[in-house]
Every structure is written in structure tokens, then in C-alpha cells.
From TrEMBL:
Domain of life: Bacteria
UniProt record similarity statement: Belongs to the alpha-IPM synthase/homocitrate synthase family.
SMART domains: LeuA_dimer (SM00917)
Record flagged with keyword Transcription: no
Known pathway: Amino-acid biosynthesis; L-isoleucine biosynthesis; 2-oxobutanoate from pyruvate: step 1/3
UniProt domain Pyruvate carboxyltransferase: residue ranges: 10-273
Name of the protein this chain belongs to: (R)-citramalate synthase
One Pfam entry name: HCS_D2
BP GO terms, sorted: isoleucine biosynthetic process; L-leucine biosynthetic process
Protein keywords: Amino-acid biosynthesis, Branched-chain amino acid biosynthesis, Isoleucine biosynthesis, Transferase
Amino acid sequence: MDQIHEKKKITIYDTTLRDGAQGEGIHFSTQDKLSYVKRIEEMGSLIVEAGWPGANPRDEEFFQQVRDLRLPYARIAAFGSTCKVNESPQNSEILLKLLASGAETITIFGKAWDLHVRDVLRTTLDENLRLIRESVSFLVSQGRIVFFDAEHYFDGFKENPDYALKCIATALDAGAKIAILCDTNGGSLPGEIARGVKAVMEAFELQELGIHVHNDSGLAVANTLVAVEAGVTQIQGTWNGFGERCGNANLSTLIPLLQLKGDYTVVTDTALLKITSFSRFVAELSNAPFDEKQPYVGRSAFAHKAGMHVDAILKNQRTFEHMDPAGVGNERRILISDQAGKANILDRLRRFEPTIQKDDPRVEQAMTEIKELENSGFQFEAAEGSLDLLLLRIIGELTTPPFEVLDYHVWSDPLRGELDSVAVVKVKVGQESVHIASEGNGPVNALDTALRQALVSFFPILGKSELVNYKVRVLDGARGTEAIVRVIIDTRLEHEVWGTIGVSKNILKASAQALLDAINWTIYCGEVSRHTSSGHAVVVPN
């Protein structure tokens, strides 16, 4: 009988809340961290390094409150260092704070590079070994599971391999459950990572070994993959690659890479389907921009623009996709631009009219209009809301607009304070006209507020949407203040975000175009949702 092949299990040590929070512009409040560990449960059995108890009041507060949470899967780890030079572990405030955190798993780092021992700790190589040995032994004696981060291991191994390995041996002999090899400066090459890992694997009989690399050379994911291939069983990293300087190894890439491309089990199949949504959740929680070009989870990861590529992928997705986007909870996107062919247009139109064929004259009409508009400054790949409104008009679904703007005026007065602008709008819905004025923080905010206030009683869905991003680009800077500007506005409705666009020499007019498209698309989405819930057959656009 054939033997069932069993994939090698790789465990995840998630340091987003600690190492990731050291990234520029990244911040997690205590409540953010609590929300994070609740949500991380859907990823299964991960170890979550949640902070350094004693480093700041926020982390101490977190470890006090997290004890009250029931976490069947996530395992919380506290992070800190060894005791200080010439200090006993029993008198170490660092180690005592780690114990007081209540965390069952404690990760401490110690120097594995003799340069750091001499120039940073300003002590002897033997004293550094004592710090490692006694710190690990003390924590183990208190009933804690201890992980040892061999800080700067790979740099230390290159310059003094015997001492770097001695640091690992000292921690393991003192009772550390696992040693983690750290490329703390992020400057090692894949070959150097492989040699460093193999040296440890040959020197010690280990069931577990970890890897922690930074991305300063753009190689964090590659170096982690090489380390796993050399025998590592635990990968450390952060979601979206957050972290100090250039960041850490990106779990959003590594998890699907190892599980789908390698012979490894990292998370459950169910968790893999949530990788994209979880990566976005982490970005939103940290108030950081989400990198849409991330492999696997970014919106651009499976976005196709060139007409020949689109034509091929609609015939066979393997022609230009290395995997099914749905396997990581993502989706294919067919972009529409001046490089689009009929296949691009046809794919988009079929969201609204599934039976439309390539030789339908409306396909050619849409392609012509889009290319003419992009030639004048529009960019529909970043403004799918405006694009879909254009296509709906061409196929005849939006023959009558839901409202009409009869007039609007906007002015600003810097002496008014924070609400320095006023917008007056007059709109008509059916046979009813509404005339309203509204203040705002800037002219665009004032106009947006006035339009929504005038229309929300007719279209309640507008009360659920919000403007989340506003971008202006000057298209021909050589013309100075007479330049054409492109405004792109991103709007959120529940969990969906889309862009709309306006182009004009007048920045306010361009903004108004984008705002009106945003409102029209929101209303359309509300109508689709209402008809769908009432049982009418309506094609819901993605």
C-alpha cells in the first residue's frame, strides 16, 4: 500500500504587535492589540509576540487585560532581553517584569555577535554567555517556556562562528525550548543564511529551530524560505512586512508561499482563505496604507491590464496567473485603460450584462470612449466606480440620473477657523428641489458635506458611506497654475472601497466630478442591494 506523504509542519511566530510596531508610522493602542489577538484566532495556532512588559505602560496594560480573554488557538508571548551586565537574574527588573506579565511563553534576546558584546554591552565574551545562561535558566526555573533570540547571529557567525554557536549552545543547555537565528541588520544573502542554519543543524540535534530576518536588503522572504529549506521549523515575521527600517519578513507572503508552493503545512486551508482579509485588517488597525502590490494579498496581485494578457487569461487563467486568486481570498481584476483591448471591456461589461458578446457595438463604443478620456487625463484603473458608471450609461441601464445638481457655490475664508469653507448646493430629485448650505474643513469637505445633507433623506445609503482618501495630481506641471489636475476620491461603503475620478483645470471642478460620481455609485450600489434583498434579479458588480 502506498504511504501517505505528510507535509512538514512550519509554525508561525507573529511579531507584528512588537517588532512590527517599531516601523515608522505604525502604532497600536492597548485596545488595538486586544482586537488583534481576538481576530488572529481565525488564523489558527500562532504564537503572538504582543510586546515588552515594562517597556511602556501600554504593554503592561495589555498583558493585564489579555488574561481575561479566552484564546483557544493564539498563544501570547512576552518579549524582553537578558539581564544586564553584572546583574543577577533574580534582581533583574526586565526578567521580573516578564514573569509578572503572566505569559507562559517568554522570548528573550541575547547577543550572538562578539562585536556587539565588546562595543555595545562593553563587557567580556564570558560575561555575555553568563547573561544568556543565567537569564534562560532563571525563567525556566519559574515554569516558563523560553525562546532564545540569537540577535545578530548571522553577522556573528560570519566573523566569529565558534562564539556565535557557543551562544546558541549556552541558551539550549540552560533550558531554552527553541533558538531563533536572527538576521537583525537584514544584510545577509541567501547563501549566508543557508550556511548559518546548516551549521546549527549540524552542531546540535534539534527538533525545532527558528528564523527571524529583516528586509534591509529586500531579501527577508527569500532568506526565510532558504532557512526553511535548510531545516528551520519556525518562521518569525510580521503581517504586511511591517517593522523597523525596511521591515520584517512578510507573513502575508510567506504563509501562502510555503503552503502553496512548498511541501509545508503552515495554516489550515480555511485560514489560508482569510489571508487577504486579515492582511487588510492589520493595515487598517495600524492606520497604515495597504501595499496593493503585495504578492498574493494585494489588489494588484491578480490585476491584468494589457489587452493580449486579458484575452489569454479569459481563455485559460494559467496563462498569466501562477495560482487561483480565490485560494488566498483574493480576486482577479481586469483593468481598463488606454492599453485595454476588447477582452478587458467585455469582461467588465459582463458584470452588468452577462450575455453581451465581443462583437456588440457597445463594446467598441466603450473602448473608444475610455481611450479618449484617458488621453485627456482620466485614469480608470484607479477609479472603478467612475468606470462602471460610464459602462452602465453605455449599455443603457442609467438612462435617468437619480438626481440633478442645479447649482453649487463654494468659498473659503481662512479667518473662519477650522471650518473655513462654506458650500451652497441646489439639487433636484424627481420633482423636488433642495437648497442647502454647509460648513467644512476646506472646500472639498464642505461640498461633500452639503451634497450628502441635501440627498441623504432621498437616498439613506449615503449615510453609511464615507470619503476615505482624496488624491490630487498635476498632469502638466509646466503650465503652472493653469495645469490640468486629476482628482481621485476613494469612498468606503461597509467593507467595499472604490475610486472615482474628475479631471479639469479647475481643482474644485475636478473634485466635484469625483464627488458626484462617488455619490451616484453609492446610490446605485444601494439600489442593487435593495432589489437583491427583495428578490429581484440584479447583477451585483464586484
